[in-house]
Amino acid sequence: MQADPKGVLTGVHFMDGDHAACEGALAAGCRLVAGYPITPSTEVVERFAARIPTVGGVFIQMEDELAASIAIQGGVWGGQKVMSVSSGPGISLMMEHLGYAFITETPSVWVDVQRGGPSTGLPTQPAQGDMMQVKWGSHGDYEVIALSPNSPQECFDLMVKAFNLAETWRVPVFLMMDEVVGHMTERVEIPSADKIEVVERKWTPKKPGDYKPYETTPDDPVPYMTKAGDGHRIHVTGLTHDERGYPAMTVAAQDKLIRRLVNKIRDNADKLVDIREDGVEDADIVVVSYGITSRVAMAAVEQARAKGLKVGHLRMVICWPFPAKRIKELAKKVKAFVVPEINLGQMALEVERHVAGTAKVLHVDHAGGTVHEPGVILEKIMEAAR
Amino acid sequence: MSEEMGLELEMDLERECALENPVLPYLRQDRIPHIWCPGCGIGTTVNCFARALTESGMDMDEIAIVSGIGCTGRVAGYLNLDSFHTTHGRAIPFATGLKLANPKLKVVVYSGDGDLSAIGGNHLMHAARRNMDLMVVCVNNFTYGMTGGQVAPTTPIGPTQTTMPFGNFENSFNLPALAQACGAVYVARWTVYHVRQLAKAMKEGLQKKGFVFIEALSPCPTLFSRRNRLGDGVDQVKYYKERSIVKNGADPKDVGLTYQGDIVVGKFVDRDRPTWMDSMNEHFTKVLGSKYTPYGVENGQD
Fold first, then answer.
1. Range of the domain at B254
2. Contacts with B208 (C-beta within 8 Å, 6 or more apart), sequence order
3. Domain A5-195 fold
4. Is B123 in the same domain as B51?
5. Which residue in the set A78, A97, A100 is minimally distant from B101, CB to CB?
6. How close A272 gets to chain B, by Cα (Å)?
7. Residue B10 maps to a domain
8. Predicted ipTM?
9. Between chains, do B101 and A231 touch, taking CB under 8 Å as contact?
């Protein structure tokens, strides 16, 4: 369906990434945000707090990130589209509720404007150090979808996409920004509402009594939803549960539920993967990047090409699920992968895991605080070419 | 007797029970038996809650119940309402989000003392401060039952707990005083001996607008009483009967509990102030004028 025009600030703007992310959420139909201030993400919720009274919805600043990350889930079961926004230390606090959103299949958008870590780290400076945390940070087996914008325009576009994916798959979806993308100001074009495709919640057509909140079919692993107050008298629990949503403390129930939840994403990875390739087909070396680093990487790739090297660029717009199939295919053809990222080796490990020794994987690491110099990436490309 | 006849008789019996026991329509009967121990008081509080639901005359489709983790955290799962069993300590913020998203709902938080006042203590304070329109029922059994009887913020000085093996030496919370100081508009304490009063308080709580806090003292025979040689559940209820002093309107600061000492029970606070949502609507209407459409009002008339 089309976006509700009330939330869409159609026009051409000069806007930073945090504000653009907020506009993306409003355009996608987000009408309830619970947040807690933390640099460098606060501008997202500040803008929401200013915008929502006249759009029609609620913002509440909670007492901490634990509260924010569960209040949004109450919001979902009350019928709203929701988001919470944070950065490293707050994301760490939200990890338990990430698991709750996953096991209860509560469609929700989580924004992580990444800063240098661990702990308080570098509050005002960028990093890409939470990539593995959002994938593995909550306990037990789970899957998320994580999108990685590299510009304010993409903060808008990918935020809309994040909401749509959350509703389609009923999983927590992360928008993995970073301090630079969040604070850089660029042209942001917001289309008219009728040009913005919005996925509506998968409401059950069934009447009370006929409806089982976690019933699925072999063809469709995503159950239909309802909300509190609609008469379905649902039970939702973080315990392992059966189709009725009732606790089911058996090995068989655990196996059935957790495999279904995880396989929603794993079996559909091909549909979800979103990569942008540039000159990859005949490349000897492929630079794999994401987020803000993809812009620096592109500069390095161009410099390497000017030196006559056959270098391709593969940018992950969606990092989780990981484009494993494509990396495996390329591994058979290329000499090396070069993976720049603002951490000491996270997505590079994932590249290595899928390349599995078939080609070299060179990591261009960075402990955080700023973006790479293109020259550092270029050096690694040259090293890979030797 | 044929199998069919037997089944029919059984169904008749079930129907009769359903007619006789007014609580049954409020329970998810396919989830019974419950997990609570013999002599535990949580089920008694649920009976009181069911009675309050009946007497309130409210539409059960418009009441949602939210629990945290622990023995009392299982209450949500047994009630035939929209029910949410959330994470440890976070029932109140979940309920906050639920209420804000769908203001027509009456949202009840039903959980234990450890869940609400230890791990969830911060949320209790802030929801009371905001006067969020929620009714909180706190079943206080002075211990962590589900995990085997550890010291809680409500454990009085003296009794032995697994993590206070030589007797508790920590001061405990006076929960009504905490709720009142933070801004709750309705604060009451009863015990599971006081079933009529507890049911009445719950009914008043359901009808009250704003942050309601009801403490229900309840025995944990398995882990609190037995370890401290206090007898069984009945002995604890006898203690409640003998040592409770009804003082409606008592200043909550004077109702702190001691180990097996006097228990002041009653309705301590019943006052009015604007809820969070009323305050938001009033403020935005004042500062934004016609640009603002009051939130939840339309929903409230659904």
1. 26-271
2. B135, B185, B186, B270
3. Rossmann fold (3.40.50)
4. yes
5. A78
6. 29
7. no
8. 0.98
9. no
Shared domain check, B176 and B41: yes
Taking only Cα atoms into account, the Rg of chain B, rounded to an integer number of angstroms, comes to: 20
How far apart are the C-alpha atoms of A232 and A237, rounded to whole Å? Answer: 15
- In a mutational test of the B interface, the residue from A63, A81, A108 whose CB has the highest number of chain B CBs within 10 Å is A63
> What residue spans in chain A does CATH classification 3.40.50.920 cover?
276-385
Binding-face residues of B in 85-104 toward A, CB within 8 A: 85-87, 89-90, 93-102, 104
Overall number of domains in chain B = 2
What pLDDT is stored for residue B22 in this prediction?
85
What CA–CA distance (Å, rounded) separates A81 from B8? 47
In this structure, the answer to whether residues B297 and B170 fall within a common structural domain is no
Q: How far is B62 from chain A (nearest CA, A)?
A: 5
Return the DSSP state at A292.
H
Q: Which two tokens stand for residue A53?
A: 């009274």
Smallest Cβ–Cβ distance between A75 and the set B60, B98, B123 belongs to B98
Say if residue B290 is in the same domain as residue B203: no
Tokens at residue A56, please?
A: 């029609």
- Report which of residues B20 and B41 the model is more confident about: B41
Do B210 and B283 lie in a common domain?
no
Q: How far is CA A106 from CA A82, A87, A159, A166, in A?
A: 10, 21, 17, 8
Residues B290 and B208 in one domain: no
For residues B197 and B299, state if they share a domain: no
CA distance A74 to chain B (A): 4
- Residue B109 binned pLDDT confidence (cut-offs 50, 70, 90): very high
